[in-house]
Amino acid sequence: MIKKINILILMLFSSFIHAGEDQSAIFSVSAERPGEEVYQSVYKSLEESRFYVIFEANIGKNLARNAERWGDEYNRNKFEFVKSMVVCNPYYTNQVMNLDPEMMALCPLTVTVIHKEGSSTVLFRKLTPTGKGSGAEDVLWEVENTIITAIENAVD
């Protein structure tokens, strides 16, 4: 019952909250911590928020396999760590599917951690720019904000 009330409150006030949001399509936050440490912290925080990691991609390791072949074009920004996690929450997935099946194109969700020169950055593609006007807009907003909060909690 409390969860339903919270969702209702979010829906009622979402237009006010949406109005003040940053319109950037990418959420980004950095921390002066090692990449693997930040990655593990984000992983744990997302799972505590019931966004379960269903796949991990060690992008840096996979790209490194092509270093010789790509030569000077390989990793020109000199990232030392690049790893992504694919996350999903079955409840929210079901809600999105019920409200606007086309928004399933956003599922599953990806969070990426990159690291170089002592700084790690967590990247997440926001859902609300794509979902604007969708029947699932309020659910997408809730998902987006839950994930961003989990990331912020992990890097603080």
Walk me through the structure.
The chain has 156 residues and is of the alpha+beta class. It has one domain (24-155): TT1751-like domain (TATA-Binding Protein). The protein contains seven helices and five strands, in the order H-E-H-E-H-H-E-H-E-E-H-H. The chain has helices spanning 2-19, 35-48, 59-64, 67-70, 90-99, 128-131, 137-155; strands at 26-31, 52-57, 81-88, 109-116, 119-125. It has a five-stranded antiparallel sheet. The longest helix has 19 residues, at 137-155.
Number of helices: 7
How would a textbook summarize the main sheet? 5 strands, antiparallel
If you average the pLDDT, what whole number results? 89
CATH superfamily: TT1751-like domain
SSE pattern: HEHEHHEHEEHH
Q: Which range does the strand content fall in?
A: 15-25%
Can you lay out the helices and strands and say which pair or pack?
Layout: H1 2-19, E1 26-31, H2 35-48, E2 52-57, H3 59-64, H4 67-70, E3 81-88, H5 90-99, E4 109-116, E5 119-125, H6 128-131, H7 137-155
Antiparallel strand pairs: 1-5, 2-3, 3-4, 4-5
Helix pairs in contact: 1-7, 2-7
A few lines on this structure:
With 156 residues, the chain is an alpha+beta fold.
